[in-house]
């Protein structure tokens, strides 16, 4: 919920607010608005300023502004927040205006922008406007271009948004800790001409990662690579809203990566092209069709496609451990071994111990007691059972009947007759198999017939 008196009363109330503030002097702060729920918020059309087609921030929102003598003013508050990562798990993070990530800032090419940043954290911070052309002194690098913003203080950043495109913001102060705690946000500079690069749906999300021990609430901030929660906008599947679009819509998805590793973002059922990078729009002649695009650390990518295939299409990072929730590491592989009873015994010694399933990994059938405040590694219920995913996973829902501007969840796809995989119960010829050395098939054991030796996988390499 966005809380600010009169916010929904529209332009009239906003004009009164500006007049009152003008009397008090142009340097007054715009009221800081807060959003503290985790639903995708469809922004109202801009009440003032130049027109643009707003983006929709997955499980997030865009920051309202006020116009002050032709300057677009925003107020970011850096503060401690509680973020629900998915129903059943909350994390104590740091963010902006009640949420991690912070609100998306949307401006138009050529806008003069003034951002007030108030620091309510226990240590100094700053904001770097990642990817922007701006005066050097507005670049937000603590020590290099400004002193840190001390706790309780407010700094002002002001520059003209020169280049349209996709940007991010994050602290350049105690960076490893502050980013591991969730301090980051998106920035979109729309083109002057709203008809340029126009799409029907424009989604944005940040890739971020946390290391929260099962049973605890606060990320470990010294983790360098071995994060255990991989998130879209600080949410994990099944807590990530789906992308709900109308069949035939031109769809853009903007992704920014502020984790410490790359993410091959993969979409089912459609091909897309990369229309935007860190440096702006790509020339059309440079684009080629893909179904996966790697987003490296610090990069932004805008992908576009026509959603012409109805259905529920998986959309996820293709690193398989990034579509899992908090997991214990150094776990032996036990495929082919019946470990029922073993985990139970180990659990009495190591409370958060989990084993990979003996039938190929499914955790669905395991009744593992979970510690307080954590999530199953693989979860989410679909129309056919457990989806067995977590982390960076959501669903693109393409529907003929989804109305323009309607971002609500249409429910599960109803497959037309004859278009669904089904069980075969008829006769089968003997299938051909590889005859190469070591290529013979092995029967799957349901019961261990030898004494089990548990070996650690050699050379566990993190990520
Ligand atoms: Cu990933």
UniProtKB/TrEMBL annotation:
Residues 427-463 are annotated as: Disordered. It comes from the Bacteria. CDD domains: CuRO_1_2dMco_1, CuRO_D2_2dMcoN_like. Residues 86-192, 218-332 form the Plastocyanin-like domain. InterPro entries: Cu-oxidase-like_N (IPR011707), Cu-oxidase_C (IPR011706), Cu-oxidase_fam (IPR045087), Cu_oxidase_Cu_BS (IPR002355), Cupredoxin (IPR008972), TAT_signal (IPR006311). The keyword Heme does not apply. Residues 1-26 form the signal peptide. It is found in: Periplasm. Keywords: Capsid protein, Cell cycle, Cell division, Copper, Metal-binding, Oxidoreductase, Signal, Virion. The keyword Membrane does not apply. One of its GO terms (biological process) is cell division. Transmembrane segments: none annotated. Pfam families: Cu-oxidase_2, Cu-oxidase_3. One of its GO terms (cellular component) is periplasmic space. GO terms for molecular function: copper ion binding; oxidoreductase activity. PANTHER family: FI03373P-RELATED, MULTI-COPPER OXIDASE. This is Multicopper oxidase with three cupredoxin domains (Includes cell division protein FtsP and spore coat protein CotA). It comes from Rugamonas rubra. The lineage of its organism: Bacteria, Pseudomonadati, Pseudomonadota, Betaproteobacteria, Burkholderiales.
